[in-house]
UniProtKB/TrEMBL annotation:
InterPro entries: VWF_A, vWFA_dom_sf
Keyword terms of this UniProt record: Membrane, Transmembrane, Transmembrane helix
Coiled-coil residue windows: none
UniProt KW Nucleotide-binding keyword: no
SUPFAM superfamilies: vWA-like
Range of residues in the leader sequence: none
Record domain VWFA: where: 78-165
Residue stretches spanning the membrane: 6-26, 38-56, 268-288
Source organism: Mycolicibacterium chubuense (strain NBB4) (Mycobacterium chubuense)
Protein name: VWFA domain-containing protein
Amino acid sequence: MTFDPALPPLILGVVAVVLVGVRLIALRLAVGTGRGAFLRWGATTLALLLVLLAAARPGSGTVHDERPAKTAAGENIYFVVDRSADSAIADFGGTTRMSGMRDDIEAVIHAHPGARFAVIAFASRPAVDWPLSEDTWSLRPVIEALNPYPDAPADQVNAAAAANVLRYQLIAAGQQYPHSENLVYYLGSGAGRSTAPQGAFDTDAVDGGAVFGYDKGPGDATLRSVANQLGVPFVAREPGEALPRAAQPAPGTADQPAAGTANQRDEFYWYLAILASALLLAEIYLSARDLRRARSTRREVLP
């Protein structure tokens, strides 16, 4: 078990001391008001302690202290994923195109240890499904849950709907990680059934990546156009096919993270945050119930 605090340990310690003092005062008020009040005090106190522990970011793996070097290494990899109705078509080796996309995303993640990843989904509009982060352990369940939008008509898809979001994401990454490469992997069907106007990608901050195509029909030309706009190769994907050479890291770099980067680390803070949220939601519900009862009692008492 290791810790990588989001705040300096001294600040966390001061907050913990203040919290203990405040909760002890609350305990004095709760004593003598019944077992229910004491249990609520304990649940709220536990929730606050869990938030503090989450801020300490417990996890498994090695934590490096060379924070400044962290911005100078490791690629920023963006997955631009087509979640339109076309991705639900089951013509990819007997399964859906989305299934092939999920497998390819997993393969790219595996091929780039130490990189940061982001997921930008689109159909007619874009959405950031996962912000740029090196927490691949938490990212994988998000990838496994990727499915086509249930209410995205195929005739309204814009193959370049994510253009502006991607451009702003790349600008932000350039400021935060000025020495890191930006790779874009576009996974889509090319909006072959769409009648909506198609946009275009306009960015010069892409250092590599690929456009993975899953449509061999009318969307093929659109996918090739997207590849030209991004300045990356177009790759028509086939079921069970290994990643193309363009998607593999340079020889000798896949097994050795660059100097100053942290080894892959499994974060546990979000377990604590979920439990704390559940406890606090229960307290909010009980407080709202008490407030309603107090108002009702007041109306009955007043003439």
